[in-house]
Amino acid sequence: MTVTTSEVRAKGEAAKATARRMAALSTDTKNAALHAIADALVAREKDIIAANEADYEEGKKAGLNDEMLERMMLNHARVEGIAADTRNVAKLPDPVGERFDLTIRPNGLVIGKMRVPIGVIGAIFESRPNVAVDIASLCLKSGNACVLRGGEECARSNTLLGRITSEAATKAGVPEGAIQLVESLDRGLVRELLKMNDVIDLLIPRGGPGLIAMVRENATMPVVSAAAGVCHTYVDKAADLAMAVNIVNNAKTRRPTICNALECLLVHRDVAEAFLPQIASKWSEKGVEMRCDPTALSILQKVNGSKGWKAVPASPEDFGKEFLTFIAAVKVVDSVDEAMAHIARYGSGHSEAIVTSDWPVADRFLSEVDAAAVYYNASTQFTDGAQFGLGAEIGISTQKMHARGPMALKELTTYKWVILGNGHTRPL
Question: Is the pTM of this model over 0.90?
Fold first, then answer.
């Protein structure tokens, strides 16, 4: 009887077969491959954009919302950005082989740790086709093989980017099969991938809450993932209000569809009457709808007049919600303690910010708020691997084990103990 091997099983086993060679790959070879990938992306830009336009048009016909369409869209600037991020990964120090925490025991043994690749990284992602290249680049530099599976809404884009990346890397000396993209849209393959703990050492889902929950519930290998990005900015009574307007506006409107965008604005009561009209005026330029608690709504209604601000009553469900569009919840609080309590209740552990000139208050916020990234006088939109100097990122982890925040090279490695002796034996 002939046994048919599925695409995901075949590609997973092919990736696994390269893992030992990937771990031993030289830094020069890895960097050359990354530059080759970037060059290939730039050379094939027209093909990439054409494939993406076909995905985009099909998505529009299928009724995808504007936020989803914005995430999946590629243009000249974004292709150039993907290539630039890939080159930036090549510039970063190679973590593989780093020896650290070395100690000399009383008996003369030298004991320490050596950083090594995890092995085979699996990734399931939605919407953003750049993720395929980001993950492949970081896996390559960290000495890992990878198996990628993108969403059907970007099937053409993902397939082409996966092929370009794999082919360029192989030509530059990376073992053939180290970068795998599952091209089939059969959803059954995702379920199969989740059970391949004999092949996949770590799985990373990137997408909506439904995808992440499904992966966490069904995966048989370790999973690193992010919760929704319910990000807050708290404007303290000691805030520079001009600075606060710029920070809050950027955090919400620069790209409202990304996970580090502001979703809830908290304002101290002492500055609410001065600050809320200013941010409402600024947000009105982008059509941001403010879903306000009674105090915030009352303040805005007093001065709104014919200004056309979009201020409406908030429902209980608006706090703790990831809008991913030009909507923000707004609440007036009496203290930094109330702000932190609100964040503890409704935040998702992603990115939280305070705007203030009172350093002791800021220091408390930085110390006590439980999130992967906590900001002082800066926009939460900086929670990004490239912005943190990590090159591209494989995702933002809101978990507390192994990796937290932007996952880049070191987060894709583990370590082994290395013990150096000189004929040592343990006494009987």
Answer: no
